């Protein structure tokens, strides 16, 4: 994630403001985007991508047609909109007190 925050990804170090509120909001957005990518990777790993239509069979190979971010967003929306609670997000947040 360090490389994503630096010049090869979100380019956080080149923000134009010194306002801490702006930076906190920016960091929140980057964190949420990273969480969607992690959710999309978990979706691919646990074979949930077939449910959201993120894969397609082409020439007897399974090819991913959505990015990990898009897969994560689609899975999040599927779980959020599930009225029968058929699909659930399972995660643990660990907070550290420094």
Can you offer a commentary on this structure?
It is extended and about 50 Å long. The mean pLDDT is 77. The chain has a two-stranded antiparallel ribbon. With 98 residues, the chain is mainly alpha-helical. Helices cover 49% and strands 8% of the residues. Helix 2 packs across helix 4. The longest helix is centred in the N-terminal third of the chain and has 26 residues, at 20-45. The protein has four helices and two strands; from the N terminus they run H-H-H-E-E-H. The protein has one domain.
Task: Please summarize what this structure is.
By secondary structure, this protein is mainly alpha-helical.
Amount of helix:
40-55%
- Unreliable parts: none
Q: What portion of residues belong to β-strands?
A: 5-15%
Largest sheet: 2 strands, antiparallel
Cα-to-Cα separation, first versus last residue:
21 Å
Order of helices and strands: HHHEEH
Task: Provide the domain count.
Answer: 1
| Broad structural category | mainly alpha
Number of helices: 4
Mean pLDDT: 77
What does the secondary structure layout of this molecule look like, with pairings?
Blueprint: H1 2-5, H2 20-45, H3 49-52, E1 55-58, E2 61-64, H4 68-81
Antiparallel strand pairs: 1-2
Helix pairs in contact: 2-4
């Amino acid at each position: 994630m360090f490389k994503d925050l630096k010049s090869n990804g979100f380019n956080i170090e080149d923000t134009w403001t010194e306002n801490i509120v702006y930076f906190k909001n920016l960091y929140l957005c980057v964190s949420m985007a990273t969480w969607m990518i992690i959710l999309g990777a978990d979706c691919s790993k646990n074979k949930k991508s077939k449910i959201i239509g993120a894969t397609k069979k082409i020439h007897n190979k399974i090819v991913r047609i959505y990015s990990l971010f898009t897969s994560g967003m689609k899975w999040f929306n599927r779980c959020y909109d599930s009225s029968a609670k058929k699909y659930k997000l399972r995660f643990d947040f660990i907070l550290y007190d420094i």
